[in-house]
């Protein structure tokens, strides 16, 4: 399940928790094969768990050396850990309501981990910014977040001819005279989360006023009809649904013909060098595809946890000239990490600037929340770039 349906649209919608999340156990540690994160045999006994879960505490987590322990008090029948580390937890022998998981993590001293316990009958998911976190002593600081002043976020619905339906867009427009630089963002439900990280940078003058125009994603799944493929996948991934890719083409038209003219009427710049496309996970692939298909329109890319490595897509990439490309991924999301690193290497000779931000983190909004403002600084005001932990491609 895609990060619990994108954490229930980033905690803005009811969460699908009427049934327990059935994740498998994480791969066990072996001496023969190194892994960035692997499960150890049960290492927490009932006494330790009860001590850590004193009073009304329902979950606890801590590190010992390179091992990260999580314990939880839940009734079951199954309990899982999300989202940096995604794994079923194990019931502690003789303790029907106590669950535990011990994970060895390479580079744990620099790790950023969110800890979300999910079981049947749990309360709705908390907002991403309130998800409990553990940060190693050498981990990057959490991105500063502020409450947005009234009036900076608005939601509009477009009766889209391209999509044949109504689709929402969410707009963050900071104070300032237009036209101003703009980030066109996939999964626009996350606009306000990211806007709260840009606002303090803009208020201090570290970053010029930058708009975010977030395109809400399509339904996560199609319940009727002949295909059960995720509509979001079809709209974001070129070639996902065959050669014709009708939803991808329609979504492309939605952006170019309907969203961008509206954004520019509200103050977004029409200059290539002031337009960015951005996204995380499949949204990062969409951002890369938009910049590849429309190099005359978009001069900047922000791709968080890019993971689309379709051979045909990568061939299209090699025929394009790019502007500035910022890629980021975590070592605890191995497939996305390797794909992002490969993309940085591939694009280095094809772009004006390319950078790759590597972290000990996972496929999680907690990492994306921290990376977004850093990427915006690099893209729109390089002189103010205060990154730490970035590596070259």
How big is the Rg? 21 Å
Proportion of residues in β-strands: 15-25%
- Spans where pLDDT lies below 50 across 5 or more residues: 11-20, 221-226, 387-393
Given helix and strand content, the structural type is alpha/beta
- Kindly, what is the distance between the CA atoms of the first and last residues, rounded to a whole number of angstroms? 31 Å
What share of the residues lie within helices? 25-40%
What is the β-strand count?
19
Number of helices: 9
Strand order of the largest sheet: 11-12-14-13-15-16-17-18-19
* Dominant shape: globular
The major β-sheet equals:
9 strands, mixed
H/E series: HEHEEEEEEEEEEEEHEHHEHEHEHEHE
Mean pLDDT: 87
């Amino acid at each position: 399940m895609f990060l619990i349906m994108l954490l229930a649209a980033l905690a803005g919608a009811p969460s699908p928790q009427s049934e327990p999340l059935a994740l498998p156990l994480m791969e066990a540690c072996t001496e023969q094969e190194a892994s960035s994160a692997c499960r150890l045999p049960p290492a927490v006994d009932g006494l330790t768990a009860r001590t850590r879960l004193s009073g009304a505490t329902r979950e606890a987590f801590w590190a010992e050396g390179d091992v990260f322990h999580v314990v939880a008090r839940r009734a079951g029948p199954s309990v899982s850990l999300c989202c940096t580390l995604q794994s079923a937890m194990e019931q502690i022998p003789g303790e029907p309501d106590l669950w535990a998981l011990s994970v060895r993590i390479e580079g744990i001293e620099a790790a950023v981990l969110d800890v979300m316990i999910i079981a049947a009958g749990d309360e709705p998911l908390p907002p991403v910014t309130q998800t409990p976190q553990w940060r190693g002593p050498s981990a990057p600081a959490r991105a500063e977040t502020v409450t947005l002043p009234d009036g900076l976020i608005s939601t509009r619905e477009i009766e889209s001819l391209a999509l044949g339906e109504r689709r929402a867009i969410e707009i963050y427009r900071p104070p300032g005279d237009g036209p101003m630089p703009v980030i066109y963002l996939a999964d626009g439900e996350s606009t306000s989360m990211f806007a709260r990280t840009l606002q303090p940078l803009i208020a201090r003058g570290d970053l010029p006023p930058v708009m975010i125009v977030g395109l809400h994603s399509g339904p996560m799944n199609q319940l009727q009809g002949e295909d059960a493929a995720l509509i979001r996948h079809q709209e974001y991934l070129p070639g996902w649904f065959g050669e014709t890719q009708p939803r991808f083409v329609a979504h492309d038209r939605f952006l170019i013909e309907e969203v961008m003219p509206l954004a520019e009427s509200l103050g977004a710049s029409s200059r290539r060098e002031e337009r960015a496309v951005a996204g995380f996970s499949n949204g990062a692939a969409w951002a890369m595809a938009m910049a590849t298909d429309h190099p005359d329109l978009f001069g900047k890319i922000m791709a968080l946890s890019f993971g689309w490595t379709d051979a045909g897509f990568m061939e299209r990439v090699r025929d394009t000239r790019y502007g500035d490309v910022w890629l980021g991924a975590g070592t605890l999301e191995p497939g996305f990490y390797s794909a992002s690193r490969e993309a940085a290497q591939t694009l280095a000779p094809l772009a004006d600037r390319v950078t790759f931000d590597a972290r000990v983190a996972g496929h999680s909004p907690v990492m994306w929340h921290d990376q977004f403002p850093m990427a915006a600084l690099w893209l729109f005001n390089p002189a103010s770039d205060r990154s730490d932990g970035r590596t070259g491609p």
